[in-house]
Specification:
There is one protein chain. This protein has helices spanning 22-32, 36-39, 41-45, 56-70, and strands at residues 12-14, 18-19, 78-85, 95-107, 114-124, 130-141. It has 149 residues and is α+β, with helices and mostly antiparallel strands. It is elongated, with a radius of gyration of 18 Å. The two termini are 26 Å apart.
Length: 149
């Protein structure tokens, strides 16, 4: 696990791959985003999307899972804000992966035990096309100081 003083601007992290299928897209949509272009293939074919599309929130949830597995920040990925966009939909048969890069580090002026790391995370399909762009501000702690007895 990495602490604030152990990371640098330019550090990169790459996730494993995650296959997406129609059943998973529909199951997520039924529970969290029940719009017909996420649930009904015939409706989706006639929609703006031209076919079944994963909810952006499903893509975001998959991205979060892959980031938790691939970005080894001590204490976890504690969000302090995000910018999020979906340049194209994720679809059945897509295989997603996330590539993350630290773009800024700002040690806290008022709390010396922590700082904010800006992480750009792009989620790509198997063709290398971005399906999500995420810029996260993440809280990252410094390594605890060990006190000798």
């Amino acid at each position: 696990m990495s602490y604030l003083e152990e990371v640098a601007v330019g550090d990169r992290y790459v996730s494993r791959e995650y296959p997406l299928d129609a059943a998973g897209i529909k199951a997520f949509a039924r529970d969290f985003d029940p719009q017909p272009f996420h649930l009904d293939e015939d409706f989706a074919a006639r929609s703006f999307f031209g076919g079944l599309a994963a909810s952006g929130w499903h893509t975001a949830a998959i991205t979060m899972r892959l980031m938790v597995e691939s970005v080894p920040f001590a204490g976890g990925l504690i969000g302090a804000g995000v910018e999020l966009s979906w340049p194209r939909p994720a679809r059945p048969g897509d295989v997603l992966r996330v590539e993350s890069e630290i773009t800024a580090i700002a040690p806290s002026r008022s709390k010396p035990d922590r700082g904010i790391v800006t992480l750009q995370s792009d989620t790509f399909n198997q063709r290398g096309e971005p399906v999500q762009k995420l810029v996260s501000k993440l809280l990252l702690f410094r390594r605890p100081v060990e006190v000798s007895a």
